[in-house]
């Protein structure tokens, strides 16, 4: 497939389906190589479609073995069947049934889309368009059907048989070693939410009663022997169900809710109705095999998929252009859940770090696209940080702009009005326009316009008049296909910080609320605050109220004052990040003077020292975030062009080293004080103490390798949990030498039978910022811990390497060549994994000329490869454009 040959699908071309499918009866007889699927579809003409249109069903690599219309075998001339579609030329102009039989080979399905086998477990993945790999269908989200599914399999091979909805029958198939289960899902749903699971699985379960009194049986299914690691997921499920009842008024709506963990999965997890299927990485947890970060991700992703039951399933998307309708909103909901369960400011900081690292970098490069794309060639390439994370930011801004009450009323209206439908962004926004009485047409531009806006802010204080004037201006850089940009609606939450904290805000202007919110909805604007008793320092974008870059004309001294005095935790953290970013941007340009950076390091270290001594123990999770500098990749993005990764990494290393040296005594003392007393518990407070201790360990390792190596050794040997062990390993990867290699070996021995832990081991090595890493990665590909067929292994080792700023971007181009070769190899078996890996090239255009040419050559090599999947061809084409 060459990308140029693939049709572009456009939002403006949306037309309702000519046919609807009200009911689907599936009879699936599972066998490893020969699974028989019999589908009985109840069809009728769509009143909104073209009368008399042919029936064209989607397929993908399908083999038809039988077709009947209203029970009678169809004449060969009445239909055309190929692997990619099935057309009934002149169907009756009334309701009728179609019986279609297809035969599949789940064992040969390496794309992990449709029905496949993962470690002997049958499972499905149908979003976005995998259902058409199971049977011919109108595989589009606005065709919603009631499903009844009979599953049959050998009892020994698949004692557990699950599908969507409620189980209505089970039994033995007489005279055979087979059994069956029948599932019925009363809620009409699009095909992408269909799922089945069959296998020998263990489970943990719990009874749940919804707020409206419905009894629900919850269960988490895992590979045999792993039930001991399913408890946290189940616990998270119960908590998020209660939260959705309390905060969004949403109750669950079936008798059962099942979660299944599988070990081969292209994405994180999938919200199939009543049967969520998960990458096992986001289910399995115990203190020995999961880190604090894993516990937090599991909690968040369990919640995310569960929340989709309302935002995604009950209300689904009219078409895939509306993907952010379910994803952005559901990410917002899971972020809020985690914020309530843990620390709100720390969660916000972590989310903003991710947003900047993934979405801002996407928005700054050739793959930039709006939150609601206008056109696509391959929808699987649009499950992006822009649709998900920026999509969530848009919802967050909406809430800030219209206020929590109107937001709540708008959500209620949306649930009421759109329940059972396949909706659009317009319908969603209309609910909030109505609930708030505000015109949201300008706000809607967030869905159409790509690129990260920059706000330039400057302020003046007139001491005599006691007036403070704040000038704000916005611009958005051009992105592919959008050369000129319009202003967007930017909620700027702010405060004016004086010597003793926040000053009262008086503008006397009704356009700008005096309660700390400026709405910058035009190219520029000035706000005058009166009765300002002293020269203030503006604290802008509190809580990161808009997903923008901010250019502030504050001195480092002012920023350091905000760091100690701002009432907004996010901006305290941001202030110090800004000081460090500024220093690193200056030092990251080749040929800059190291002495300036060292002077800045002393200043930052001084502020940190005071902070750690006075407040380090008050909120260790926050302190850990404060201690962590912006990543080298953030600095590269901030520099934006002619980027030399080695110079940036070098600057980062010297700044960290200098800070670490200045703080060594404080950090060692802090680590002792924080040393654990109780047994491991995954709660946020305990995790925060470990995070701070381990952040300190990393700095010590850079600043004082010998002392660092000793601490690593101690921590590794005495740890009773993976978090501390892995942090020790990660710190040790910063210290070249035999001791490191020895520790890497020890780690592998301890976790030899734990693939998910070894993924972290693979990744830690892939991230080493040394020239030997490429060879190491190639060597590790031969290790038995690695497999090109498993997405988690590939993301850990190859994806880890592609995220290694200095080594992926080696000056000799060998990093690009390696990743390009891997993309080409993977594309033959799993195009989705391959195209995600190719996305690692998204920032190539900002590199200095030598690397830029080399990266382009590798991309071009991929683009030229014959027989590429649509997934990879599309990314290659857009990346090169
Ligand atoms: N819809 C899933 C989620 O966000 C993600 C996903 C997309 C999973 C496509 C598989 C395939 O929760
Ligand atoms: Zn989702």
UniProtKB/TrEMBL annotation:
<dbReference type="GO" id="GO:0006508">
    <property type="term" value="P:proteolysis"/>
</dbReference>
<dbReference type="InterPro" id="IPR024601">
    <property type="entry name" value="Peptidase_M1_pepN_C"/>
</dbReference>
<feature type="domain" description="Peptidase M1 membrane alanine aminopeptidase">
    <location>
        <begin position="232"/>
        <end position="445"/>
    </location>
</feature>
<comment type="similarity">
    <text>Belongs to the peptidase M1 family.</text>
</comment>
<dbReference type="GO" id="GO:0008237">
    <property type="term" value="F:metallopeptidase activity"/>
</dbReference>
<dbReference type="InterPro" id="IPR014782">
    <property type="entry name" value="Peptidase_M1_dom"/>
</dbReference>
<dbReference type="Pfam" id="PF17900">
    <property type="entry name" value="Peptidase_M1_N"/>
</dbReference>
<dbReference type="InterPro" id="IPR037144">
    <property type="entry name" value="Peptidase_M1_pepN_C_sf"/>
</dbReference>
<dbReference type="InterPro" id="IPR001930">
    <property type="entry name" value="Peptidase_M1"/>
</dbReference>
<dbReference type="InterPro" id="IPR038438">
    <property type="entry name" value="PepN_Ig-like_sf"/>
</dbReference>
<dbReference type="GO" id="GO:0016285">
    <property type="term" value="F:alanyl aminopeptidase activity"/>
</dbReference>
<dbReference type="InterPro" id="IPR027268">
    <property type="entry name" value="Peptidase_M4/M1_CTD_sf"/>
</dbReference>
<feature type="domain" description="Aminopeptidase N-like N-terminal">
    <location>
        <begin position="50"/>
        <end position="193"/>
    </location>
</feature>
<keyword id="KW-0862">Zinc</keyword>
<keyword id="KW-0479">Metal-binding</keyword>
<keyword id="KW-0482">Metalloprotease</keyword>
<dbReference type="Pfam" id="PF17432">
    <property type="entry name" value="DUF3458_C"/>
</dbReference>
<feature type="domain" description="Peptidase M1 alanyl aminopeptidase C-terminal">
    <location>
        <begin position="556"/>
        <end position="881"/>
    </location>
</feature>
<protein>
    <recommendedName>
        <fullName>Aminopeptidase N</fullName>
        <ecNumber>3.4.11.2</ecNumber>
    </recommendedName>
</protein>
<keyword id="KW-0378">Hydrolase</keyword>
<keyword id="KW-0031">Aminopeptidase</keyword>
<dbReference type="InterPro" id="IPR045357">
    <property type="entry name" value="Aminopeptidase_N-like_N"/>
</dbReference>
<dbReference type="InterPro" id="IPR035414">
    <property type="entry name" value="Peptidase_M1_pepN_Ig-like"/>
</dbReference>
<dbReference type="GO" id="GO:0008270">
    <property type="term" value="F:zinc ion binding"/>
</dbReference>
<feature type="domain" description="Peptidase M1 alanyl aminopeptidase Ig-like fold">
    <location>
        <begin position="451"/>
        <end position="552"/>
    </location>
</feature>
<dbReference type="InterPro" id="IPR012779">
    <property type="entry name" value="Peptidase_M1_pepN"/>
</dbReference>
<dbReference type="InterPro" id="IPR042097">
    <property type="entry name" value="Aminopeptidase_N-like_N_sf"/>
</dbReference>
<dbReference type="Pfam" id="PF01433">
    <property type="entry name" value="Peptidase_M1"/>
</dbReference>
<keyword id="KW-0645">Protease</keyword>
<dbReference type="Pfam" id="PF11940">
    <property type="entry name" value="DUF3458"/>
</dbReference>
